[in-house]
Amino acid sequence: MWWADPALASPPLLDLLDETERARHARFRLPADRDRYAVGRALARLLCARAAGCDPREVVFRLRCGHCDRPEPHGKPHPAGPAEGWELSVTHSGRKVGVALSRGLPVGLDVEQIADRDLDGLVRYALTERERAELDALAPAERAAGFFTYWARKEALLKATGQGLSGGLTSVEVSGPHTDAALLTWSGPAAPDHARLFDLDAGDGYRAALAVLAAPSVTVAVHDASPLLEAAHHGFAPQPGSPPAVP
Ligand SMILES: CC(C)(COP(=O)(O)OP(=O)(O)OC[C@H]1O[C@@H](n2cnc3c(N)ncnc32)[C@H](O)[C@@H]1OP(=O)(O)O)[C@@H](O)C(=O)NCCC(=O)NCCS
Ligand SMILES: [Zn+2]
């Protein structure tokens, strides 16, 4: 998986996005949301292209929801075209963008900036009774970070299957903040046969986790995406016929 800084958003990176992505990019009202989105999708394309040995603009993302059959495209992006067979997960929060890539094994990545706003409501929405009791036993100063440890672990799992939050955060029960990341129980028909869960270090003020739908023995390699993104700032001429990038 790769970490990136949304400050690396630039017009050349926007040249990597397809038309639908550029339209979505232009609809974000907040520059911070726009930059996180651009860096996430551009990095996802660059990594898929490097893995598949093709031009980043040849990579196609098909959106598939693991939860419902609504006809309009939505949900988890799946690489198609030359990058078919690779599995991907994108996440962003605050000043962090993350992309996980795997050959064939579904992955789910989540990063969360720690905040203590509306924490009690989020706790009721997201945690099982057992997780809540464990959180309540933490010192008050540990409560917000503890909560986002749970959230990132649970959402990483739900993003791996493509259910996302619609799968229900309480359908998944995970280990607590003072224990290594582990899936304890998963209820419902969409529960996968195997799942591996890892905490990632996203820096102070963040919690992050990665889930891989696989039997044991998965190795996770963590990289800084800055060199790849900085190289892309110089490297791509717009394709003939593509609309100009939105500054
Ligand atoms: C999508 C979702 C998992 C995002 O969570 P989040 O913490 O707000 O945001 P993150 O930054 O961690 O993840 C966002 C990325 O997850 C990916 N994603 C979208 N839907 C996904 C899904 N169902 N499963 C896995 N990944 C998904 C996308 O790449 C998205 O980023 P991008 O569009 O900028 O590339 C969550 O908001 C969700 O499940 N929403 C769907 C709820 C809904 O609308 N349900 C009704 C239809 S089923
Ligand atoms: Zn859906």
TrEMBL record:
Species, as recorded: Thermobifida alba
GO molecular function term, any single one: transferase activity
Q: Where does the source fall among the domains of life? A: Bacteria
**What is this protein called in UniProt?**
4'-phosphopantetheinyl transferase superfamily protein
Give the 4'-phosphopantetheinyl transferase domain ranges.
Answer: 106-211
> Which key words tag this protein in UniProt?
Transferase
UniProt record similarity statement:
Belongs to the P-Pant transferase superfamily. Gsp/Sfp/HetI/AcpT family.
